[in-house]
């Protein structure tokens, strides 16, 4: 079991994100993962720094902390060749501490380049081709690729780490989980679903299994639940909504009726360590061994202290 911390790059500016990563290492976290967005989710966020720049700065500020994207869509807004180069560079700068988390993306971030937003089945085909390209470029030398959706012409990544980064593939369903087992090194989810672990393993997946655990720490449960509503109400809409809306104003409209009580159903809210363990336990029971904790609460320093003194030991005991 390893415990990580989710860096919410939509809710905090780039300098604060780097500072939070350094504080996470001091607090005893094993890794951090940072969201890779062009737009934030809702109007309260007001930030969206460039993930790979922040990761480079975090690599320089930390010494043992694992780093990951949570997650990068390696097509449309990016070309997979650029992702392959960026990930290789971060792996070098971090002395091998980097994991490339990838997924099929959201319209929120990808529509900005004006290339359209394909159907989900097409996006999964594009993700498969992108992973094949990244693997090719990490094998060294010049390569070309002529896929159904993505192409590569006579390209080489010159700076490669001695050991290639792991690739963690995000999955919301069995098809993506099988892709993680076929072309990835790890599985990445946001729900405590044992069926995704089973689909990952049935095609040979044997690597780490990452999951994001939704928590909100505050000295009062009410303050924690309200902060979760402000910062993470988009999360209750589900991926069929999250993947399709184009801008924060659309998520504001879609979540207008979400209340703090809705957040209590999905988030561990408040100061009670047992409530947070209750939220985390289903992920462990479903087979996930890399828990990335989200703190949607209003007091980040208080959360880090709480993790060091109470929450971290309680979760490691699971």
UniProtKB/TrEMBL annotation:
Chain segments annotated as transmembrane: none
KW Cytoplasm (keyword) present: no
Pfam families: Bac_luciferase
Keywords, comma-separated and alphabetical: Oxidoreductase
Domain Luciferase-like residue range list: 13-289
Domain of life: Bacteria
Protein name: G6PDH family F420-dependent oxidoreductase
Organism encoding this protein: Kribbella pratensis
Lineage: Bacteria, Bacillati, Actinomycetota, Actinomycetes, Propionibacteriales
